[in-house]
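Researcher: First entry.
Model:
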Amino acid sequence: MQSQRNTLEIYIDRLAGDGAYPVTVRVLETNQSARSSMVLALSSVELADAQRWLAEGDADMPAVQDFGARLFDALFVGPVRLLYDQLVGDPDRSPAFWLLVGDPGLAQIPWELLYDSRRQSFLALVAPFVRGLAIENPARSQPVDAGPLRVLVASAFPAGLENLEANDEAQRIASALRQTPDGVQITELAHATLSRLQNALREAELGNTPYHVLHLIAHGYADSATDASAVILEDEHGEADVVQPATFAALLSGLGIQLVFLNACSSASMPASNLAPGFAQALLGVGIPILVGMQAPVSASDAMLFTAELYGSLADGRSVDGALLDVRRVAQQRSADGRTAPAIPVCYTRNMPARLVDAPASKPAAPAPVPVQPAAPSTPTTTGKRGLRRLWGLAAATVALVVGIISGYVSMRDFFCVPPVRGGLPTILGGVCDAIAPQEEPVVVVAPTATPQPRLTGDFKIAVAEFAPVDGASDAGAKGSELAQQLYDQLRDDLDAMASAASVPFSIDMGLAPQEVGRIEGNSYQAQVDNAVRRAREINADLLIFGNLDVSPDKT
């Protein structure tokens, strides 16, 4: 029988003055270590191609192997390569790989494609390959050794977005986990809103039956301009509620959850700046030991395949890192895109091995099917107004914009006008266009700079003006004030949560309330812009949000 794997921790530090990245590797069990430097010879175009392969599944195997081999040869050099060869040369010491990356830009690379050309194998297909973060006082995952494994399966599919088979996925989880040694309790929460999710988690905690696993089935995305990632829950009207990582993490903090599985597109993608945390930084930062997510868009069939295989392996007592190895091997054989699909699921863990349940002492006999319980009677959802979706899209866009400005990835000088974006789910910058566009006129947005600017210092002051009615419609006045206040409150909450989770401290001042700012009016769009600039100077605001409100019987 093969002995337990060693773990090779690989830490890639930030770029040094000599143009190389310092690399330190360490065998956790024996404390053997080695150091070297990595010079990344891959161009930005090649790195973008690799990310596109994951998103579109259009790569040919020789190209994927060549990319992975060049990445491998850059990382494993000198003493680091010697230690690697020693470990993989002994079958009883074949290591698991735990990658920690100090540079945010490098964290965006699909390291799961590392390819050892001499052994003709992808590292992530021959051994557990997971990621970590350099976090002080890492939380230890506690295997569930008494009582049933409790899993909350939450799903959200707002109006206008594809409705995936959430109930079928919950049944697959139940079937996969039915051989868990001490049993399993699975609760399903449909139409998940932030408040419903919070209530379900808190009620379980107060009842001394906290959930060990949160499995979220939802849509997600990473904005191509800002790298900001988000998942999309529902609001009280059944419309899209874009939830940022910091807000989601604050909801789960201190509830004893051991594993979060975000079965949502791009939920494990990494931002290029440490200022705006992705889900990995946010969740591990509040003490969640293990996160499994997707670093690219994923098909519905692959998502369900990943789910069934992961939980089936966990039920057999495999660690999460070991279970993910099983997932990748099965995906290579059964996915429609076996070339890059195995690299889409990513695990971030605060410790190794990442164990959730203990291995069973013996094979249990024919377990009974596991019932899936609803968290509460599902209430019918109603289609809310499109204006509200635009409002929350604007809130998410503003958060991303502020992050970019403060971190230097967006310059206040780079303003330009574009037509409003129409139709479909907006991107972050598209959300700005769609949310504040007055009819079909152009809107002012900002573009990320090609070269990062210095970070801003001091306070960053944001103001929200009351929305002005279109064509002087008097019945829109009260509604404009109400929606502006809702946007103001949402921004304040999101920015406070983001600031508390960010690794770089900064200060946001929400400035005056909408009623104090007043309306930004004008006989033309340009006149409104001029008046907005003048009002921003009067109240000393760095960013002023204003817009027009069109209220009719069928829309806002």
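Researcher: Second entry.
Model:
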Amino acid sequence: MELEARIRRINELYHKSQGEGLTEEEKEEQRQLRKEYAANIRNNLRTQLNGIDIVEKDGSVTNLGDKYGRKEAPRESSTIRRQSPGMSDTGEYKQSFRRRAIAARDNIEAETRRKKDRLIRERLVSLPEFERAGSLGLYCSYRSEVDTRDIIEIALGMGKRVFLPKCAVNDSRPELRFYRIASLSQLKKGYKGIPEPDEEGCEALSGQELELLIVPGTAFDTSGYRMGYGKGFYDAFISYYRSEASLSSSGNLKPVFTIGLAYSEQVFDKIPAEEHDVRLDMLLMDIGEIRISKV
């Protein structure tokens, strides 16, 4: 079975399991399909790692395919995930992985990229989470990220309250501040050249208004972890926003539903993650969607 058909069938079984339930045969099919999909992603990851070399402090060269991708040591990645943020090994690995993932994204041909963007857009706007969200956080695509300009226009056309982030860089912590826009014309180049809302004339996000948050990334994995550009803007915002919802005095606020948009080339079995990294609720790709189980 082709990868796209496999993901489509996995999603069909997931939705059926949440409704009428699965037969024993379907449960076994679901287990087998997930196993095959994980193996496919794992092989993709090994291929990526084989092309990354790290120069150690003593001048020796370590190939990450040898260090983390061997079949006989598949648990290496989970060990990395639990390392503390200050460990240099994790930082160097993440930087190398990030560069490799961005290169894979950059190398997608223009026509292929347009087709992938269209598929992602169509999948996103047909999701029930998108349809019922009155207020949502989006991003304006930067460089080779999944294009979102048409998605923003569609959301605005549906009468949704659309908020986009502005990066605030200070000494204490990275901070995303969201502002409501009524048009793409309200954007200007901001941090690192990223299109951001012009604070003047844009309404700032207030309280727990967002029902849906759509985020970019350089790499993602099937457990819901994402990798950005290294500053931690989205991890900090999502952690704060979720904690505010859980501490709400009313007790009836639902945490914002988070979706990462990615080309299939950006998705791996596991990416290097640390304790402060947050997990998304869904990964949406040109070839399908993955709903993340937090159990």
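Model: Note on the second entry: The longest strand covers residues 161-168.
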